[in-house]
Amino acid sequence: MGLLIMDLNLLDSSLPTSNGAVTLGSVLKFILILSFSTLLARVLKIYLRRYLKDKVSKDVGETILKILYYGTLTIVFIFNLPLIGIDPSALLVAGGVTGIILGFASQSIIGNLISGFFLMVERPIKIGDQVQISDVSGFVTDIRIISTIIRTYDGLLVRIPNQQVFTTNITNVVGHPVRRFEYTVRIRYSDDANAAIWIIKDLIDKEPFALLNPAPSVFVNDLGDSWVNISVRIWAPVSEWFGIKTRLLWSIKQALEENDIEIPLPQRIVRIQADAKKVPIQSDAEKIPAEPIPEKEIESILNYEERVLA
């Protein structure tokens, strides 16, 4: 009984602060309130995610959940600061000085925080988009406060700081509902280009995912050294873009070969002149030896070298 009274008295023991006495009980109360608030915020986050699943897109829902979650915890933390002897109004002055110090010490972190906020507001990319950021390409799996997570086509998870994401060029592959792809088909000069164009257009018309508006275009683009270049430009939905691109290219090759239109190989024409003058090839024994230098010339050369050296 005496031990229980000592424990209760320990909870009533206080520590002097600028905002009054702080007891151990008030500190425990502060910790319990924060723990309960964190648990409650997580439970509400789960239920709100299920509720917003069919109401809004995934990226918008995640942004709303993050703002509500961290905003709730921040408000609970500030309102319960008097329990540990801290006046919230004093944080305005202390926060200003501390903010300046921390600003110089953690410029990159603050830059990432601000960039993350602008990414959530501007929304140049969304969760699930296929993007290329700098030299990283893949799917956006999460947009966090400080960083963005990209899952590459090889299955690797790459974390990119939000400041780099916001300040670099972003290529959103699926940002527009339709996308164009292009082929360059080469045929021989002896083949009929009009027939090749008609065959390719017929294949495009039979493709269900090739869009009619914008209309596809097939035309002779260039006359090469050994072939005629035919450009093929087709628009398709983003979801079917890759499949139709890989499937249609092989169909074009097969259709052209069935109609005796082949893809040419590089050719070079070499002309040999028949009446070229033949130069007799002499062996080493038949070569004319060089004429010997007269002795007088040798002496003059030696004398000249001696004069120069002198």
Given the helix and strand composition, which structural class is it?
alpha+beta
State the CATH architecture of the largest domain.
Orthogonal Bundle
Q: Any idea what the shape is?
A: elongated
Radius of gyration: 41 Å
Total of helices: 9
Low-confidence stretches: 1-11, 13-18, 304-310
End-to-end distance: 125 Å
Report the count of strand segments. 10
> Going across the major beta sheet, what is the strand order?
6-5-4-3-7
Beta-strand percentage?
A: 15-25%
The top level CATH class name of the largest domain: Mainly Alpha
Order of helices and strands: HEEHHHHEEEEHEEHEEHH
Average pLDDT over all residues: 77
CATH topology of the largest domain: Helix Hairpins
Number of individual domains = 3
Largest sheet: 5 strands, antiparallel
Residue share in helix: 40-55%
Blueprint of the fold:
Blueprint: H1 2-12, E1 14-17, E2 20-23, H2 24-52, H3 58-79, H4 90-105, H5 107-122, E3 130-133, E4 136-143, E5 147-152, E6 157-161, H6 162-167, E7 170-172, E8 178-187, H7 193-206, E9 217-223, E10 228-237, H8 241-258, H9 295-309
Antiparallel strand pairs: 1-2, 3-4, 3-7, 4-5, 5-6, 8-10, 9-10
